[in-house]
Amino acid sequence: MAEDIQEEDSSRKFPIHKIIDSIELLEKIKKNIPVIYNHVIIKGDLNTNDPGFPKSEGRFEISSVIKITNSIFLDDINFRGTLFKKSVILGGSIFHGNVIFADSLFYGMINYNSDLEWNIDYELISLIRKNCYSDGSRLSGNANFNGCRFHKIADYSGCEFADRVYFNSCQFDGDACFSESKFHDGSYFEGSFFKGDALFVKCSFHFAYFPNCKFCADTHFNMSTFRLASQFLKSSFDEDIFFNYSQFNDFTTFANCKFNNRFIISGTKFSVDYLTFIQTSFKDPDSQEIACRQAKNVLEKNGNREEAGYHFYREMDARRKQKPWYIRYPEYALIQMIFGYGIHPERLIISWVVLIAIFFILYQYYSGVAHPDEWFEWMKFSFGAAIAPGYIASISNPESISYKLSHTFQIAAMIEAVAGTFLWAGFIATFARKYMR
Fold first, then answer.
1. Which positions of the chain have pLDDT values less than 70?
2. 137: closest CA among 162, 112, 168, 171?
3. What is the pLDDT of residue 138?
4. Which candidate, 73, 5, 16, 64, places its Cα nearest to that of 44?
5. Residue 415 belongs to what H/E stretch?
6. Which residues form the domain of 3?
């Protein structure tokens, strides 16, 4: 198998120098000799249960630096319950067996990041071809898994990350399990791809960074705590995402996200200064209504009237979409597009100008008003009718010495007066609400 692997990867410009037996590595580890290899094939299991490993506080202890980069591990790696006193660097490597670090302690740095100095293309991604179990581990240094690909389950349940942890540009083909983990510093998942369920139930986040992520299955953040900023900018969710009974304590943004199913936040508390769903698309109107109402309340409480108005508009839009069609469509045409739910005074001005223009054309084309000598007179008449009901009342009076209206166009002028009054009153109310509070 080693020869086949060597031939396969050499075709990908992945040079392998030699095959190393796992016994050689284990002997070096036992003698505290640094284990440093590059471009090798590791044959045989790596297991700290092997006789001769020293123990400390009931754990197997490894005091050697382990740096095996751009290499292939043919068999299982089992470092369950191991204490690593120095760095563990496995950048750019491929794992054909199970990788188990469950209940381990890392006092150095654990790094699965690709080693960029080798200018490798395909191997910039570490491939973990079977299950990766790290549940119950405590990582005290930076944990860097950038660019890793997990072909099956990646289980980090119950881990405690004392420093920053990086999962940027990772691909999880199976379920990604981080439930009950504690992130004491930043957790970075930028650009990661979750094909299976993403499980972050009962997690504790310091700074959660999930921009440009793709979640293909259900995503669970139930009963989690976000102590500092949480960013899900430009991420997409194909299935349901759950934040039930979670707690957000700082800046939170879901701007430019895509929710292609339900966004569920039952019992969630937002004790934050800023919460936004700007330019976010919701397929489920009920989810949009609830999310935008939460954001509106947070922003109004903190005096951000402009963005609060934006979220109020989207809340009302979502409520309209849940109504019967015979209410939904008239409301869209009249209340939403013209009055803008009291948020967009510019729409009322545009509608008012359009109203004047339409009736000006009618009056001129059908000669509905007597005496005007030029087009401006018809325009002035239409303007007066739209802005001043008293004005149209006087000129529609047969005894008036002003412009004379035909009988038919007296009714048209009254319609314009009523419509203009509503538009003008709506503009005043909207302007006052938007700028005078």
1. 1-17, 50-51, 57, 91-92, 102-103, 106-142, 370-374, 388-406, 434-437
2. 162
3. 62
4. 73
5. helix 407-435
6. 1-121
- The Cα 387–Cα 419 span in angstroms is 10
State how far the Cα of 372 lies from the Cα of 402, in Å rounded to an integer. 10
103-131: string of b/e by CB count within 10 Å (b at 16+)? bbbbebbbbbbbbeebebeebbbbbbbbb
The per-residue pLDDT for 371 is: 63
Residue 403 β-bridge partners: none
Residue 1 lies in a domain: yes
CA dihedral for 312, 282, 346, 363, sign (positive or negative): negative
* Helix or strand run (H / E) with residue 43: strand 40-43
Q: What is the largest CA-CA distance in the chain?
A: 116
The encoded tokens of residue 91 equal 């950048």
Domain count for the chain: 2
Contact 72, 43 (CB under 8 A): no
Q: Residue 154 has which token pair?
A: 């990646």
**Which strand (E) or helix (H) includes residue 395?**
helix 389-395
Q: Residue 1's pLDDT is what?
A: 52
Q: How far is residue 417's CA from residue 156's CA, in Å, rounded to a whole number?
A: 69
How confident is the model at residue 294, as a pLDDT?
Answer: 96
pTM higher than 0.85: no
CB 297 within 8 A of CB 268: no
Check residue 111 and give its pLDDT: 64
| Residue that is last in its domain, among 121, 142, 170 | 121
Contact call for residues 126 and 94 (beta carbons, < 8 A): yes
Nearest-5° Cα angle at 91, 90 to 96: 65
Is 8 in a helix, a strand, or coil? Answer: helix
Beta bridge partners of 312: none
Structure tokens at 283: 């397929």
State CA 381 to chain mean position distance: 53
Q: Among 90, 121, 152, where does a domain finish?
A: 121
Q: What pLDDT shows up at residue 8?
A: 44
Identify whether 352 is part of a domain. Answer: yes
Q: Is position 191 within any domain? A: no
Residue 290 and residue 268 in contact, taking contact as beta carbons nearer than 8 Å: no
* Residue range 93-151, pLDDT digits in tens: 777 777 777 667 766 666 665 433 322 222 333 455 566 566 666 666 667 777 777 77
CA 143 – CA 200 distance, rounded (Å): 17
Q: Would 155 be classed as within a structural domain?
A: no
CA 40 to chain centre: 39
